[in-house]
Amino acid sequence: MQIGVVKEIKDQEYRVALTPTGTAALAQAGHSVVLEAGAGLGAGYADTAYQATGAQIVSTAAAWASDLVLKVKEPLATEYAYFQGQMLFTYLHLAGVSPALTDALLRTHVTAVAYETVQDYAGRLPLLAPMSAVAGTMAALVGASYLAKYTGGKGILLGAVLGQPHGQVVVIGDGVVGQHAARAAAGLGAQVTMLGRRPERTLPWLGDLATQVQYQQSSPEAIAQCLTAADLVIGAVLIPGAKAPYVVTEAMVQGMQPGSVIVDVSIDQGGCIETSRPTSHSHPVYERHGVLHYCVTNMPGAYPRTSTVALTTATLPYVLRLANEGLAAVQQDAGFLQGVHTYQGAITLQPVAEALGLMASYQPLAAMLHSL
What we know:
By secondary structure, this protein is an alpha/beta fold. The protein is 33% helix and 18% strand.
Protein backbone atom coordinates (compact mmCIF):
# COMPACT_ATOMS: atom_id res chain seq x y z
CA MET A 1 0.00 0.00 0.00
CA GLN A 2 1.15 3.57 -0.65
CA ILE A 3 1.00 5.77 2.46
CA GLY A 4 1.14 9.53 2.02
CA VAL A 5 2.19 11.98 4.74
CA VAL A 6 1.06 15.54 4.02
CA LYS A 7 2.27 18.82 5.47
CA GLU A 8 -0.03 20.56 7.93
CA ILE A 9 -1.32 23.97 6.85
CA LYS A 10 -3.35 25.02 9.91
CA ASP A 11 -2.11 28.22 11.55
CA GLN A 12 1.26 27.54 13.21
CA GLU A 13 0.73 23.79 13.16
CA TYR A 14 4.20 22.25 13.19
CA ARG A 15 3.42 18.63 14.01
CA VAL A 16 3.74 15.86 11.43
CA ALA A 17 1.82 12.58 11.36
CA LEU A 18 4.85 10.29 11.15
CA THR A 19 8.43 10.30 12.42
CA PRO A 20 11.31 8.82 10.37
CA THR A 21 11.19 5.82 12.73
CA GLY A 22 7.59 5.31 11.63
CA THR A 23 8.62 5.50 8.00
CA ALA A 24 11.18 2.79 8.60
CA ALA A 25 8.59 0.51 10.23
CA LEU A 26 6.20 0.89 7.29
CA ALA A 27 8.97 0.36 4.73
CA GLN A 28 10.11 -2.80 6.54
CA ALA A 29 6.52 -4.06 6.34
CA GLY A 30 6.70 -3.72 2.56
CA HIS A 31 4.79 -0.48 2.11
CA SER A 32 5.68 2.60 0.06
CA VAL A 33 5.83 5.90 1.97
CA VAL A 34 5.66 9.26 0.19
CA LEU A 35 6.14 12.46 2.16
CA GLU A 36 5.21 15.96 1.09
CA ALA A 37 8.38 18.05 0.89
CA GLY A 38 9.04 19.83 4.18
CA ALA A 39 6.27 18.05 6.09
CA GLY A 40 8.50 17.25 9.06
CA LEU A 41 10.57 20.43 9.26
CA GLY A 42 8.43 22.08 11.94
CA ALA A 43 8.97 19.11 14.24
CA GLY A 44 12.69 19.04 13.54
CA TYR A 45 12.78 16.28 10.90
CA ALA A 46 14.48 17.10 7.60
CA ASP A 47 13.40 15.47 4.35
CA THR A 48 16.73 13.63 4.29
CA ALA A 49 15.87 11.90 7.57
CA TYR A 50 12.79 10.40 5.92
CA GLN A 51 14.67 9.51 2.74
CA ALA A 52 17.22 7.64 4.84
CA THR A 53 14.44 5.46 6.23
CA GLY A 54 12.80 4.66 2.91
CA ALA A 55 10.45 7.55 2.10
CA GLN A 56 10.16 9.34 -1.23
CA ILE A 57 9.80 13.16 -1.14
CA VAL A 58 6.95 14.32 -3.36
CA SER A 59 4.60 17.21 -4.10
CA THR A 60 1.43 18.01 -2.16
CA ALA A 61 -0.79 16.44 -4.81
CA ALA A 62 1.32 13.29 -5.00
CA ALA A 63 1.22 12.80 -1.24
CA TRP A 64 -2.57 13.13 -1.23
CA ALA A 65 -2.87 10.69 -4.15
CA SER A 66 -2.12 7.75 -1.87
CA ASP A 67 -4.15 4.78 -0.70
CA LEU A 68 -3.81 5.91 2.92
CA VAL A 69 -3.16 9.55 3.83
CA LEU A 70 -1.81 10.46 7.27
CA LYS A 71 -2.35 13.88 8.83
CA VAL A 72 -2.48 15.44 12.27
CA LYS A 73 -5.31 18.00 12.05
CA GLU A 74 -8.54 18.04 10.10
CA PRO A 75 -8.23 19.04 6.42
CA LEU A 76 -8.90 22.69 5.62
CA ALA A 77 -11.03 23.93 2.72
CA THR A 78 -8.10 24.29 0.32
CA GLU A 79 -7.33 20.59 0.80
CA TYR A 80 -10.78 19.28 -0.12
CA ALA A 81 -9.80 19.28 -3.80
CA TYR A 82 -7.40 16.42 -3.03
CA PHE A 83 -10.16 14.12 -1.78
CA GLN A 84 -10.58 11.20 -4.16
CA GLY A 85 -11.94 8.23 -2.24
CA GLN A 86 -8.75 7.43 -0.35
CA MET A 87 -8.48 6.44 3.30
CA LEU A 88 -7.67 9.36 5.62
CA PHE A 89 -6.31 8.86 9.15
CA THR A 90 -6.16 12.03 11.27
CA TYR A 91 -7.86 14.03 14.01
CA LEU A 92 -11.22 15.08 12.56
CA HIS A 93 -13.44 16.49 15.35
CA LEU A 94 -16.30 16.68 12.85
CA ALA A 95 -18.85 17.68 15.49
CA GLY A 96 -16.82 20.79 16.29
CA VAL A 97 -15.73 22.01 12.84
CA SER A 98 -17.49 23.39 9.80
CA PRO A 99 -20.08 21.03 8.23
CA ALA A 100 -18.34 21.72 4.92
CA LEU A 101 -15.62 19.19 5.80
CA THR A 102 -18.18 16.46 6.44
CA ASP A 103 -19.97 17.34 3.19
CA ALA A 104 -16.69 17.06 1.27
CA LEU A 105 -15.80 13.71 2.84
CA LEU A 106 -19.23 12.31 2.02
CA ARG A 107 -19.33 13.67 -1.51
CA THR A 108 -15.92 12.22 -2.42
CA HIS A 109 -16.44 8.89 -0.63
CA VAL A 110 -13.36 9.29 1.55
CA THR A 111 -12.99 6.64 4.25
CA ALA A 112 -12.24 8.97 7.17
CA VAL A 113 -10.78 7.39 10.30
CA ALA A 114 -10.46 9.72 13.28
CA TYR A 115 -7.78 9.29 15.90
CA GLU A 116 -9.98 10.79 18.61
CA THR A 117 -12.66 8.07 18.72
CA VAL A 118 -10.57 4.92 18.32
CA GLN A 119 -10.99 2.83 21.48
CA ASP A 120 -8.86 0.15 23.09
CA TYR A 121 -10.07 -3.03 24.78
CA ALA A 122 -10.96 -1.09 27.94
CA GLY A 123 -12.92 1.62 26.14
CA ARG A 124 -10.14 4.20 26.51
CA LEU A 125 -9.07 6.57 23.73
CA PRO A 126 -5.41 5.66 23.11
CA LEU A 127 -4.86 7.95 20.11
CA LEU A 128 -6.44 10.98 21.74
CA ALA A 129 -4.68 10.48 25.07
CA PRO A 130 -1.16 11.71 24.14
CA MET A 131 -2.40 15.02 22.76
CA SER A 132 -4.85 15.39 25.63
CA ALA A 133 -1.94 14.99 28.02
CA VAL A 134 0.05 17.69 26.21
CA ALA A 135 -2.94 20.04 26.02
CA GLY A 136 -3.84 19.53 29.68
CA THR A 137 -0.33 20.32 30.86
CA MET A 138 -0.21 23.28 28.49
CA ALA A 139 -3.54 24.61 29.80
CA ALA A 140 -2.11 25.25 33.26
CA LEU A 141 1.07 26.84 31.89
CA VAL A 142 -0.67 29.00 29.26
CA GLY A 143 -3.31 30.05 31.76
CA ALA A 144 -0.62 31.03 34.22
CA SER A 145 1.12 33.19 31.61
CA TYR A 146 -2.08 35.07 30.69
CA LEU A 147 -2.77 35.88 34.33
CA ALA A 148 0.16 38.30 34.13
CA LYS A 149 -0.95 41.92 34.35
CA TYR A 150 0.76 42.95 31.11
CA THR A 151 -1.35 40.42 29.16
CA GLY A 152 -4.60 41.74 30.64
CA GLY A 153 -4.78 39.26 33.51
CA LYS A 154 -5.42 40.06 37.15
CA GLY A 155 -1.74 39.82 38.12
CA ILE A 156 -1.91 36.59 40.12
CA LEU A 157 1.13 34.30 39.99
CA LEU A 158 0.13 30.64 40.12
CA GLY A 159 2.45 28.96 42.56
CA ALA A 160 3.91 28.88 46.04
CA VAL A 161 5.93 31.92 47.12
CA LEU A 162 7.99 31.20 50.24
CA GLY A 163 5.64 28.36 51.04
CA GLN A 164 2.45 30.38 50.59
CA PRO A 165 0.19 29.15 47.74
CA HIS A 166 -1.17 31.73 45.30
CA GLY A 167 -3.86 31.35 42.67
CA GLN A 168 -7.14 29.47 42.46
CA VAL A 169 -7.40 27.02 39.55
CA VAL A 170 -10.67 25.28 38.66
CA VAL A 171 -10.47 22.24 36.36
CA ILE A 172 -13.80 21.05 34.93
CA GLY A 173 -13.49 17.44 33.81
CA ASP A 174 -11.43 14.56 35.19
CA GLY A 175 -10.30 12.74 32.04
CA VAL A 176 -6.78 12.82 30.63
CA VAL A 177 -6.88 16.58 29.95
CA GLY A 178 -8.24 17.38 33.39
CA GLN A 179 -5.82 15.08 35.18
CA HIS A 180 -2.78 16.59 33.48
CA ALA A 181 -4.06 20.13 33.96
CA ALA A 182 -4.66 19.54 37.68
CA ARG A 183 -1.28 17.90 38.10
CA ALA A 184 0.53 20.75 36.34
CA ALA A 185 -1.33 23.45 38.32
CA ALA A 186 -0.79 21.64 41.62
CA GLY A 187 2.86 21.15 40.72
CA LEU A 188 3.23 24.91 40.35
CA GLY A 189 1.87 25.26 43.87
CA ALA A 190 -1.55 26.71 43.06
CA GLN A 191 -4.74 25.78 44.89
CA VAL A 192 -6.66 23.45 42.61
CA THR A 193 -10.31 22.43 42.56
CA MET A 194 -11.30 19.65 40.19
CA LEU A 195 -14.91 19.02 39.24
CA GLY A 196 -15.57 15.56 37.90
CA ARG A 197 -17.48 12.34 38.32
CA ARG A 198 -14.87 9.62 38.86
CA PRO A 199 -12.67 10.41 41.87
CA GLU A 200 -11.78 6.74 42.32
CA ARG A 201 -9.90 6.88 39.00
CA THR A 202 -8.48 10.40 39.17
CA LEU A 203 -7.16 10.86 42.69
CA PRO A 204 -4.88 7.77 42.67
CA TRP A 205 -3.39 8.94 39.36
CA LEU A 206 -2.49 12.32 40.90
CA GLY A 207 -0.39 10.53 43.51
CA ASP A 208 1.28 12.78 46.08
CA LEU A 209 -0.27 15.86 44.47
CA ALA A 210 -3.78 14.58 45.24
CA THR A 211 -3.55 16.25 48.65
CA GLN A 212 -3.26 19.61 46.86
CA VAL A 213 -6.39 19.03 44.76
CA GLN A 214 -9.86 19.53 46.18
CA TYR A 215 -12.14 17.15 44.29
CA GLN A 216 -15.85 17.92 43.97
CA GLN A 217 -18.68 16.11 42.25
CA SER A 218 -19.51 18.13 39.16
CA SER A 219 -22.89 19.89 39.00
CA PRO A 220 -24.07 23.25 37.64
CA GLU A 221 -24.34 24.58 41.18
CA ALA A 222 -20.84 23.46 42.15
CA ILE A 223 -19.33 24.89 38.96
CA ALA A 224 -21.06 28.25 39.42
CA GLN A 225 -19.88 28.50 43.02
CA CYS A 226 -16.25 27.62 42.21
CA LEU A 227 -16.03 30.08 39.32
CA THR A 228 -16.71 33.14 41.46
CA ALA A 229 -13.32 32.80 43.17
CA ALA A 230 -11.36 31.28 40.26
CA ASP A 231 -8.30 32.91 38.74
CA LEU A 232 -7.95 30.26 36.03
CA VAL A 233 -10.68 27.96 34.69
CA ILE A 234 -9.74 25.01 32.50
CA GLY A 235 -12.51 23.36 30.47
CA ALA A 236 -11.76 19.67 29.92
CA VAL A 237 -15.08 18.03 29.07
CA LEU A 238 -15.32 15.32 26.42
CA ILE A 239 -18.07 13.16 24.95
CA PRO A 240 -16.29 11.03 22.31
CA GLY A 241 -17.33 12.02 18.80
CA ALA A 242 -20.06 14.38 19.97
CA LYS A 243 -20.21 18.13 20.47
CA ALA A 244 -19.08 19.11 23.96
CA PRO A 245 -21.91 20.29 26.23
CA TYR A 246 -21.85 23.80 27.69
CA VAL A 247 -21.11 23.20 31.37
CA VAL A 248 -20.22 26.87 31.93
CA THR A 249 -22.94 29.32 30.93
CA GLU A 250 -22.47 32.93 29.88
CA ALA A 251 -24.04 33.99 33.19
CA MET A 252 -21.37 32.04 35.06
CA VAL A 253 -18.64 33.81 33.08
CA GLN A 254 -20.23 37.16 33.89
CA GLY A 255 -19.93 36.22 37.56
CA MET A 256 -16.17 35.69 37.34
CA GLN A 257 -13.66 38.29 38.52
CA PRO A 258 -12.21 40.71 35.93
CA GLY A 259 -8.81 39.62 34.68
CA SER A 260 -9.51 35.93 35.22
CA VAL A 261 -8.54 33.47 32.47
CA ILE A 262 -10.42 30.65 30.76
CA VAL A 263 -8.63 27.93 28.78
CA ASP A 264 -11.21 25.83 26.93
CA VAL A 265 -9.40 22.67 25.84
CA SER A 266 -12.73 21.24 24.64
CA ILE A 267 -12.84 23.77 21.81
CA ASP A 268 -11.98 21.10 19.19
CA GLN A 269 -15.38 19.61 19.90
CA GLY A 270 -17.17 22.97 20.00
CA GLY A 271 -16.13 24.08 23.49
CA CYS A 272 -17.65 23.43 26.91
CA ILE A 273 -17.96 27.11 27.83
CA GLU A 274 -20.76 29.13 26.28
CA THR A 275 -18.60 32.20 25.61
CA SER A 276 -15.84 30.22 23.87
CA ARG A 277 -15.04 30.51 20.18
CA PRO A 278 -12.10 28.99 18.27
CA THR A 279 -8.84 30.95 18.23
CA SER A 280 -5.40 30.34 16.72
CA HIS A 281 -1.80 30.47 17.87
CA SER A 282 -1.44 33.73 15.94
CA HIS A 283 -4.41 35.28 17.76
CA PRO A 284 -4.88 33.08 20.83
CA VAL A 285 -6.99 35.17 23.23
CA TYR A 286 -9.94 37.51 23.38
CA GLU A 287 -11.82 39.19 26.21
CA ARG A 288 -15.46 38.61 27.07
CA HIS A 289 -17.16 40.02 30.18
CA GLY A 290 -13.74 41.04 31.49
CA VAL A 291 -12.40 37.47 31.27
CA LEU A 292 -9.59 36.42 28.93
CA HIS A 293 -10.46 33.39 26.80
CA TYR A 294 -7.78 31.12 25.30
CA CYS A 295 -9.42 28.70 22.85
CA VAL A 296 -6.70 27.56 20.45
CA THR A 297 -7.89 24.52 18.49
CA ASN A 298 -4.44 22.95 18.02
CA MET A 299 -2.73 23.57 21.33
CA PRO A 300 -0.16 20.72 21.07
CA GLY A 301 1.12 22.23 17.82
CA ALA A 302 3.06 24.67 19.99
CA TYR A 303 5.32 21.80 21.08
CA PRO A 304 5.65 19.85 17.84
CA ARG A 305 8.63 17.65 18.61
CA THR A 306 7.20 16.27 21.85
CA SER A 307 3.74 16.00 20.32
CA THR A 308 4.90 14.28 17.13
CA VAL A 309 6.89 11.65 18.98
CA ALA A 310 4.00 10.96 21.38
CA LEU A 311 1.46 10.85 18.55
CA THR A 312 3.46 8.51 16.32
CA THR A 313 4.16 6.17 19.23
CA ALA A 314 0.41 5.82 19.74
CA THR A 315 -0.77 5.76 16.12
CA LEU A 316 1.89 3.65 14.39
CA PRO A 317 0.48 0.23 15.41
CA TYR A 318 -2.90 1.30 13.97
CA VAL A 319 -1.31 2.71 10.81
CA LEU A 320 0.46 -0.61 10.27
CA ARG A 321 -2.80 -2.49 10.69
CA LEU A 322 -4.59 -0.27 8.16
CA ALA A 323 -1.69 -0.59 5.73
CA ASN A 324 -1.49 -4.37 6.11
CA GLU A 325 -5.20 -5.21 6.25
CA GLY A 326 -7.17 -2.23 4.97
CA LEU A 327 -10.67 -1.98 6.42
CA ALA A 328 -10.47 -5.61 7.50
CA ALA A 329 -8.51 -4.23 10.46
CA VAL A 330 -11.59 -2.47 11.81
CA GLN A 331 -13.89 -5.41 11.08
CA GLN A 332 -11.87 -7.45 13.55
CA ASP A 333 -11.65 -4.77 16.23
CA ALA A 334 -14.78 -3.10 17.60
CA GLY A 335 -12.73 -0.33 19.22
CA PHE A 336 -10.91 0.47 15.99
CA LEU A 337 -14.25 0.47 14.16
CA GLN A 338 -15.34 3.39 16.39
CA GLY A 339 -12.75 5.54 14.63
CA VAL A 340 -14.40 5.36 11.21
CA HIS A 341 -16.56 8.44 10.67
CA THR A 342 -17.35 8.29 6.94
CA TYR A 343 -17.41 5.45 4.42
CA GLN A 344 -18.81 5.27 0.88
CA GLY A 345 -20.74 8.51 1.26
CA ALA A 346 -22.30 7.72 4.65
CA ILE A 347 -21.63 8.93 8.20
CA THR A 348 -20.80 5.81 10.18
CA LEU A 349 -20.54 7.13 13.75
CA GLN A 350 -23.89 8.01 15.29
CA PRO A 351 -22.72 10.80 17.69
CA VAL A 352 -21.24 12.66 14.70
CA ALA A 353 -24.45 12.33 12.67
CA GLU A 354 -26.51 13.50 15.64
CA ALA A 355 -24.26 16.49 16.36
CA LEU A 356 -24.43 17.63 12.73
CA GLY A 357 -28.14 16.95 12.27
CA LEU A 358 -27.36 14.45 9.52
CA MET A 359 -29.01 11.28 10.78
CA ALA A 360 -30.40 10.73 7.27
CA SER A 361 -26.81 10.15 6.17
CA TYR A 362 -26.02 7.73 9.00
CA GLN A 363 -25.38 4.05 8.37
CA PRO A 364 -23.75 1.70 10.90
CA LEU A 365 -20.38 0.68 9.52
CA ALA A 366 -20.60 -2.90 10.78
CA ALA A 367 -23.73 -3.45 8.72
CA MET A 368 -22.16 -1.88 5.62
CA LEU A 369 -19.05 -4.04 5.87
CA HIS A 370 -21.09 -7.16 6.57
CA SER A 371 -23.01 -6.68 3.34
CA LEU A 372 -19.85 -6.60 1.21
